[in-house]
């Protein structure tokens, strides 16, 4: 239905001449035209429309009277507030509020057919999905995922459009595969992000725990096995890779906010690193950072080994820790791929 046809139908509705099917079209007009449609109604038509909407609102809530509420009065319900805004901005405001207040989805849209489930997140918040193997998917808004309801055979496969965080139940006998665009992420049991950018056709994989293999897959309609076009990359915690499909380019790097890797053995033995230093040589400071964050550090020259650091930096982020250390020894740090380089003149 185009704008002109809808305007004619709306005027028919104002005159009380619509049948049930046409009234239903009015109720769902926003899904056909979009939320910012402007309709050139006269003031008389706007007033008639307001009264008819009030009648419908009161009838739906069981009220016995139709009452027009003054604009500046404090409204007690969301229905009344929405109808009042009709007076301010016309019918397009009513449609916008109708979508936001009354048609906002709070659960996933689920489509199941022949043992395959597709779950679409049209809400405004991340939605959690439990898979049959115990894995958990945290699906971001405007994203969808497709998978078999029961994982059979020798692998577990899911197909992602958009962004999701995966917590994969470990099963060495049955690897877990995530397909997003041209990229395949293969894991045994770990947690990681997969982010697909539709506009740039780039796919980013970021690892939180464990180890993952990321590679490009050949477009094989009769795919029985994963055919790797390139060797791809192996990622460990706090590492990420972005793949640009337009030029088959891989860019590796570190997470925007690297998090400590929990060592269960050390945790049980209560030997967690305190990050409290007193004239500690820089190589030992960096060694502690490597153990906690799983990131390799390099020093530009041997003189930096003579530098020492004093301070308590337990509750700082990794990059804040590095800023404080570098300030103390008159150095700088630079992220190079999945490593961090410390540069400076060093100490005597």
From TrEMBL:
Listed Pfam families: FecR (PF04773), FecR_C (PF16344)
UniProt key word Repeat: no
GO molecular function, one term: sigma factor antagonist activity
Keywords assigned by UniProt, alphabetized: Membrane, Transmembrane, Transmembrane helix
Transmembrane segments: 79-97
Residue span, FecR protein domain: 123-212
Signal peptide (residue range): none
Domain called Protein FecR C-terminal: residue spans: 275-342
Name of the protein this chain belongs to: Ferric-dicitrate binding protein FerR, regulates iron transport through sigma-19
Organism: Pseudarcicella hirudinis
């Amino acid at each position: 239905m185009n704008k002109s046809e809808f305007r004619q139908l709306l005027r028919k509705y104002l005159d009380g001449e619509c049948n049930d099917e046409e009234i239903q079209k009015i109720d769902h007009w926003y899904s056909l035209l979009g939320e910012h449609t402007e309709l050139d109604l006269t003031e008389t038509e706007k007033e008639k429309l307001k009264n008819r909407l009030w009648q419908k609102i009161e009838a739906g809530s069981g009220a016995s009277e139709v009452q027009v509420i003054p604009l500046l009065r404090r409204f007690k319900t969301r229905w009344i507030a929405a109808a009042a805004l009709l007076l301010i901005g016309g019918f397009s405001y009513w449609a916008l509020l109708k979508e936001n207040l009354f048609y906002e989805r709070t659960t996933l849209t689920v489509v199941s057919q022949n043992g395959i489930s597709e779950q679409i997140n049209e809400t405004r918040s991340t939605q959690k999905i439990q898979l049959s193997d115990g894995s958990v998917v945290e699906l971001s808004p405007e994203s969808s995922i497709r998978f078999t309801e029961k994982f059979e055979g020798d692998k577990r496969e899911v197909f992602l459009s958009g962004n999701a965080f995966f917590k994969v139940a470990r099963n060495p006998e049955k690897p877990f595969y995530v397909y997003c665009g041209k990229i395949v992420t293969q894991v045994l049991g770990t947690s990681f992000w997969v982010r697909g950018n539709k506009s740039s056709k780039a796919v980013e994989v970021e690892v939180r725990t464990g180890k993952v293999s990321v590679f490009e897959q050949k477009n094989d309609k009769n795919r029985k096995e994963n055919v790797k076009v390139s060797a791809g990359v192996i990622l460990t915690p706090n590492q990420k890779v972005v793949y640009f499909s337009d030029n088959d380019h891989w860019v590796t790097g570190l997470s925007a906010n690297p998090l400590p890797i929990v060592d269960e053995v050390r945790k049980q033995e209560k030997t967690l690193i305190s990050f409290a230093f007193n004239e500690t040589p820089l190589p030992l400071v960096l060694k502690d950072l490597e153990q906690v964050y799983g990131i390799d550090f390099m020093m530009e020259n041997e003189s930096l080994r003579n530098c020492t650091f004093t301070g308590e930096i337990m509750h700082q982020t990794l990059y804040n820790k590095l800023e404080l250390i570098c300030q103390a020894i008159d150095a700088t740090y630079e992220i190079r791929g999945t490593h961090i380089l410390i540069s400076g003149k060093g100490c005597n």
